[in-house]
Specification:
This protein has 331 residues and is mainly alpha-helical. It is 54% helix and 7% strand. The strands form two sheets. Strands 1-2-3 form a three-stranded parallel beta sheet. α4 packs parallel to α13 and α9 packs antiparallel against α12. The model has no long low-confidence stretch (mean pLDDT 95). Bound molecules: tryptophan (TRP).
């Protein structure tokens, strides 16, 4: 008998346009995992509203993000791709799990502390309980692995703690998930400030998947480097150049050594536009394919509807088990 594939769940918030960082750090890996694992890839719009969103933009970005997932190579036949708010079980399980999560645990989440500082005028209970909703996302589908960046590890650890606690009280209900930080993942830093992660809230240091070639070239030509001339990988002393090397190698499939040899003695004036061109060529088909799909609303609608249906089928199995165990009367 064929061995059962491990299940993966991951998601990105439609709180901004997808970036080169989200592609190289997350989506590219998701594509690599789609044959070997049983994957659910979500557009987590319910997470996005933990900070204020413009309604028309949120709607547009959610659908466009699906188009971009597909254009990046995620196959809706192989993966369950859906919009979080289309599967009400996330909110339902989220409520239950919130009753098994301590106030103190949530108070220790470093992302909450950071975001509360950033949005000091709007610290909602949704922002505070966000990790509980994330736990529901993961546990609903009995995910084994959760590909996330370093910044989300603490939330996956909390998810395990909640699952373990619930299992302890009611017998085995949830699979304990593990954070999965794939080897291939590239952590892309800001082009303007290579000490920080590339972020959609910093448009100049950030390349968007839908950026036009001339914008991409401009951003790379302006990328912050150092006052030397050698194209050498050295994260500590040459953070900017190291970031550009990582981007160049991820875009072209070359190794760092190959790239260093290629640009030996050629200076940043040659290197920076070369990185820009590699990224332009990488993103061109993704942008064109996204644009084509964004124009085909009926197709995208069919994908997210089918995704939501398949997700609901799985989510219901877990949720009804949970409701039964905690003592809710069957409907
Ligand atoms: N919190 C994640 C982020 O901001 C997004 C997310 C929501 C997620 N639910 C998830 C990631 C479940 C992995 C699994 O990046």
């Amino acid at each position: 008998m064929e061995e059962k594939k491990k299940r993966i769940f991951s998601g990105i918030q439609p709180s901004g346009e997808l970036t080169l960082g989200s592609y190289m750090g997350a989506i590219k890996n998701w594509v690599a995992l789609q044959d070997e694992y049983d994957c659910l890839y979500c557009i987590v719009d319910m997470h996005a509203i933990t900070v204020r969103q413009e309604p028309a933009l949120l709607r547009k970005r959610s659908v466009n993000q699906l188009a971009q997932y597909i254009a990046c190579g995620l196959d809706p036949k192989k993966n369950i791709m859906f919009i979080q708010s289309h599967v009400p079980q996330h909110a339902e399980l989220g409520w239950v799990l919130g009753c098994y999560t301590q106030f103190g645990e949530l108070s220790r989440m470093t992302q909450f502390k950071a975001k509360a500082k950033q949005h000091a005028d709007n610290i909602t209970s949704g922002l505070f309980t966000y990790p509980v909703l994330m736990a529901a996302d993961i546990l609903l589908y009995q995910a084994d692995l959760v590909p996330v960046g370093e910044d989300q590890k603490q939330h996956v650890e909390l998810t395990r703690d909640i699952a373990q606690r619930f299992n302890g009280v009611y017998s085995d209900t949830f699979t304990l998930p593990e954070p999965f930080i794939p080897q291939m993942g590239a952590r892309v830093m800001s082009l303007g400030d290579p000490g920080n992660k590339m972020s959609k809230s910093d448009p100049d240091g950030c390349v968007f998947l839908m950026d036009k070639p001339e914008d991409i070239m401009r951003k790379f030509k302006r990328a912050v480097t150092d006052c030397e001339t050698a194209v050498k990988f050295d994260k500590v002393n040459k953070a900017g150049i190291s970031n550009l090397l990582t981007i160049y190698c991820t875009a072209t499939g070359k190794t760092i050594e190959e790239a260093e040899a290629e640009f030996e003695g050629r200076g940043y004036g040659i290197f920076k536009p070369a990185v820009g061109e590699a990224v332009v060529e990488l993103l061109r088909p993704i942008r064109e394919e996204s644009e084509r799909m964004i124009a085909d609303k009926a197709y995208l609608e069919s994908v997210y509807k089918e995704g939501a249906q398949r997700a609901q089928y799985l989510a219901n199995k877990t949720l009804s088990k949970v409701y039964r165990k905690i003592g809710f009367v069957a409907r």
